[in-house]
Design a protein that fits this description.
The chain has one helix and 21 strands. The protein is mainly beta. The strands form six sheets. The chain has a five-stranded mixed beta sheet with strand order 1-4-3-6-8, with no helix packed on it. A five-stranded antiparallel beta sheet has the order 15-16-13-18-21, with no helix packed on it. Strands 11-12-17-14 form a four-stranded antiparallel beta sheet, with no helix packed on it. A hairpin with a 6-residue loop joins β11 and β12.
């Protein structure tokens, strides 16, 4: 009897932890979005049937939220009106029932979690919404020969999915004077601050699966380079937030996309 009680307490504790972790994830990712608390007469009940599939038309499990954007007295409010998960069973839809305003609003879906980038789907009418999700890919990075003495060339390829709106930071040894780029210079992502990168750039390039791009890295030196010199690049991607903006990380410095990739020259 005592053993069964202990087992029950343990299971209950695990369930509480799982619920808290789910709430924390939503807070970190969508912390400044309001939970819907409609109580006035300007709202109605709405039901949508939601599915999700990948680019090969395979049904997938993914978490999603439905956000109502409500325009009120020149203010824009973002309210989470539903949070659910899609099914991989054919003809089985997630039935999303929620309250929404009658006028001055728009609805859209955002998937989150899993190994998928966040996509946004705008509601345009009807009773169903079918999301398309994109796999988060990996980077293959190789060095190419360059005809210029003070330039590195890298071939960057995304495999097994996309790598979205990527950038890179550079750390270099003392004999390097400067690293330049045609891309926008940005501050370092917070998660890399402890590594003290010397400079960071944002390309805004999205590599779809098996797509490549060449990154030129011109440099100047103080004295000729020797065997003790090195240059390290850290590649990072971006993901959408609930306002459909691409961001490198959330406000707490957490990575919200794919892995960071390193390459040393």
């Amino acid at each position: 009897m005592e053993r069964n009680v202990k087992l029950g307490v343990a299971i209950f504790t695990i369930l509480i932890i799982i619920m808290l972790m789910g709430s924390l994830f939503l807070f970190v990712k969508y912390g400044d979005v309001n939970k819907s608390t409609h109580s006035d007469k300007n709202v109605i009940k709405k039901v949508l049937y939601v599915t999700a599939s990948d680019r090969s038309d395979n049904l997938v499990n993914t978490n999603f939220i439905i956000i109502e954007v409500y325009y009120n007295n020149n203010k824009t409010e973002y309210n989470i009106v539903y949070d659910g998960i899609t099914s991989t069973i054919k003809n089985i839809y997630e039935e999303a029932e929620f309250m929404t305003h009658i006028t001055n609003f728009s609805l859209y879906l955002l998937n989150y979690g899993g190994n998928y980038y966040t996509n946004m789907l705008v509601y345009t009418g009807g009773q169903s919404m079918d999301m398309i999700v994109d796999d988060i890919g990996e980077l293959n990075i190789t060095q190419l020969p360059s005809i210029n003495n003070n330039e590195y060339l890298l071939n960057v390829t995304s495999v097994n999915g996309q790598y979205r709106q990527f950038g890179y930071c550079v750390k270099y040894s003392f004999n390097y004077l400067n690293i330049s780029s045609k891309y926008e210079k940005i501050i370092s992502p917070k998660r890399l601050n402890n590594e003290y990168p010397d400079v960071c750039f944002y390309t805004s390039i999205t590599l779809i699966e098996n797509m490549s791009t060449i990154i030129s890295i011109p440099y100047t030196v103080i004295t000729p380079l020797n065997i003790y010199d090195s240059l390290e690049l850290i590649f990072f991607d971006s993901n959408r937030n609930y306002k459909n903006e691409y961001i490198i990380e959330d406000e707490m410095g957490n990575d919200i996309g794919g892995l960071d990739y390193r390459f040393t020259l």
